[in-house]
């Protein structure tokens, strides 16, 4: 079995368009349960090095309705992972070992959704933090030889610290 390896690359201009294409597909597929779709994660932040995986935050009116339609997502290549460690989330991945998309679905207004959006916006508004994050991610990916778990663990403290700052910053904005 080949283990998926983390690869961090410089920002790509086509990431926003890849998000828009997938967002349209998701909206067309899921219809009126979708209340909003956001591009999140590092690929949503201009000039931020990232794993080349499009992270999507899907806000829905009803998680059960999403669960009832998860077969539609599976039919277009997503793998359903349930809450996957975050209560109230539905997580889907697409692309197998050559991952292309992560889909994080929450009920509209969920605090976890707010945290994702606050962190994205904070990184956009604070280029010095964005650059620190980029350098950290590149260094960790190199240091852990692409090991996914070690990569996530290596950046966790930085992310948690800045998510907390981002939530405070968003509340003050």
Can I get a quick summary?
The chain is an alpha+beta fold.
Overview of the structural elements:
Helix content is 49%, strand content 17%. With 173 residues, the protein is an alpha+beta fold. The chain has one domain (15-172): 2-Layer Sandwich (Beta Polymerase, domain 2), CATH 3.30.460.10. The protein has a 5-stranded mixed beta sheet, with helices on both faces. β4 and β5 (101-107) form a beta hairpin. α4 (111-125) packs across α6. The radius of gyration is 16 Å and the shape is globular.
CATH topology group: Beta Polymerase, domain 2
* Strand portion: 15-25%
Query: What is the CATH class name?
Result: Alpha Beta
Please tally the helical runs, counting DSSP H or I stretches of 4 or more residues.
Answer: 6
Keywords:
173 residues, alpha+beta, 5 strands, globular, NT_sf
């Amino acid at each position: 079995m080949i283990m998926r390896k983390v690869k961090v690359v410089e920002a790509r201009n086509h990431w926003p368009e890849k998000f828009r294409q997938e967002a349209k597909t998701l909206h067309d597929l899921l219809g009126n349960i979708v209340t909003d779709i956001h591009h999140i994660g590092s690929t949503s932040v201009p000039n931020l090095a990232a794993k080349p995986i499009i992270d999507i935050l899907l806000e829905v009116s009803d998680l059960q309705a999403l669960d009832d339609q998860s077969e539609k997502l599976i039919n277009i290549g997503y793998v359903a992972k349930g809450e996957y460690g975050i209560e109230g989330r539905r997580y889907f991945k697409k692309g197998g070992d050559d991952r292309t998309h992560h889909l994080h679905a929450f009920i509209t207004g969920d605090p976890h959704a707010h945290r994702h959006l606050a962190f994205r916006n904070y990184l956009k508004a604070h280029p010095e933090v964005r650059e620190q994050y980029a350098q950290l991610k590149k260094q960790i990916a190199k240091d852990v030889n692409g090991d996914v778990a070690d990569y996530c663990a290596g950046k966790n403290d930085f992310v948690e610290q800045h998510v907390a700052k981002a939530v405070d910053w968003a509340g003050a904005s």
